[in-house]
Structures are given as structure tokens and as C-alpha cells.
Fold:
Amino acid sequence: MSLRTGIGTVRRRMLSQFLSRRVTLGNAGPIVSFSFDDFPRTAFTVAAPILQGFGARGTYYVTPGLMDTVNNLGEQYCLRDLQDLVEQGHELASHTHSHLSCREVPFHSFREDARRGRQAIFDQVGIADSGNFAYPYGDVTLRAKQALGLEMLSCRGTTPGINGPEVDLNLLHANSLYGDMAQLAAVERLIVENETRKGWLVFYTHDVCSRPSRFGCTPVLFEAAVSFAAQGKAKIVTVADALAKLEVQAKLEPANGVSGSAGDFSSDFQNQVHPDCQR
Ligand SMILES: [Zn+2]
Structure:
């Protein structure tokens, strides 16, 4: 193991162990959630119909600053995609405004950008996001984990693994769903392991197209993964619906500092604190 790899392992372990906000999965599992980050248009235009074909919905971690842009993942979402996504029952979650890494900018800038992202989602579609958040690049610091844990219903990283029997709402495990059918066997193993452990398995990807970026997957892999999960014992639900099953209702603080309709956020969330969610 190289020094760099070793430091990364220690960092991930520390981030997992400290400043957690734990809830018990209880009998809610097995659950599988499919999520999309940023998000490229194909995550909606291609992947959403596949999920819906199995009666399922996805969680979209939206980065408003990327709307109407094109990058290495292809065309990013447009306003109409967001509107259709909400209308079709998918989940709007947040992913900062400008896709900043909390390890590369001052903490206050990161927190402000996370709040600005939520505000922009509200401004774009007229409804608040779900309160669920994903860290861009999967980068997390203890300071960000502590502070955003107070503002978000849940925060998701990119550390692989199965959530449960205890779930850390401040840093959900998530597994990449990248590549083509060569990855299916590994995906199926995860789904089976999740069933055995009665856990909560969260997948994330980006573009879903026949020639995906290295951060995306092909439609055939995506459909095969959803199909395999649907044939098993797990329920396929959004992150928000999974948390509803766990009766997670806490949003410990409204997003203070968000300009404009910050009050709309707080009014859309129940401020009561579930006993399991207290530190
Ligand atoms: Zn991202």
C-alpha cells in the first residue's frame, strides 16, 4: 500500500467514524436506491424511463450551475428536464451550486455554495429540494460533515459499501454504477449481499448512454442492474422514500443564510427532531 493510499484509507475511516448521525435500519431493508449526480441529460432522458418501467424512481443530486452547459459527461440538464423529473415523481436532491470540492475551497465558501445550490433549485422549479445532499467528487471533511449534517436530511459520499444495520445520515455509503455489461456481475453481487444483510444499497452514476464517459454507464448495464434488483427482495426507492421508511424527519436547522426564500425551505421541512437523529 502506498503512503497516499494509506492516508486515504485513514481519512475515510475517520470520516466514517466521527460526527455521525445514526439511525437504525431495523426491518426496513433490503432497499436499493439509484441516484444521479450533477446531472447529465441522459441520466433523465434515458435512465428515468428505465426506472419507471420497473415502477421505480431515482434520486437526482442537482448542480444548478451546470444547467444548460456541456462538459465531458455530455449535455447537462435543462429546465424542462427538472420540471418533468418532478412531475414524474423523481427526487430532487442537491449537490452544491458550482460543483465545488470541500477539500479545495475554504469551508465558508463551500457551505455558501451548498446553500446557494438549494436556493437555485427552488428558484428553478418553485419547490424545495428533498433536503438530501451529495458531496461533489465524494470529497468530505470533518468540518463539512459536521456543519452540513445540521442542515441536510442526509449527506451522501462516494465511499462504497452497504448502509445498515446502522445508517450514518451524515455520510451515506454509495457505490458507483459505471461502465458496461462487464460490470454487471459485480453489481449483482452487491445486490445479493445487500439482500442477505437486509441493508440499504445506494448506487450513483452520471451519464447513461451507449458511449458513456468514465463516470457513466450504458443503458444496458443500467437496465440490467435495475432489473436484477427488481427481481430480488429489495424495494427500489429514492433516498427520500428510504428515509421516510426510517421515519427520518429531522432537518435540524433551516438553511440559514440562504437569501430570498430561505423561509420556504424551513416551511417545507418538519423541524421536529426524531429521537434517533439526535447526536
Ligand atoms: Zn458531481
Remarks:
- The chain has one domain: 12-277.
- The chain is about 40% helix and 15% strand.
- The pocket of zinc ion is lined by residues 37-38, 95, 99, 136 (CB under 6 Å).
- Residues 252-279 have pLDDT under 50 and may be disordered.
